[in-house]
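Appendix B, example 12.
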Amino acid sequence: MKDLGGLMKQAQAMQQKLADAQARLAELTVDGTAGGGMVTVTLRGNGELARVVLDETLVEPGEGEVIADLIVAAHADAKRKLDAAQAQMMQEAAGPMAGLMGGMPGMKF
């Protein structure tokens, strides 16, 4: 067996990097847009919807269904961006150990 102490230090360092990445993810926010920017939603790192901004031209009688569809589309856009940012941060945190960690329960890469 190679240097077990060195391997343990690497594992501890990776664990710290993953914890740091999770802390950064908790502070992350991403925006998603739809309708050419007429609807913008902001998601927090945990996926929680934090804000919805509507272009005032949408706020007209009879536009409720359009607004609802645009909010859903903007949320989907933000969620895709959030998932990509989370995957990137975790990949960077895991470094060379990412291949090993990908198969572990609770680890997404």
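The CA atoms of residues 38 and 57 lie 8 Å apart. The chain has three helices and three strands.
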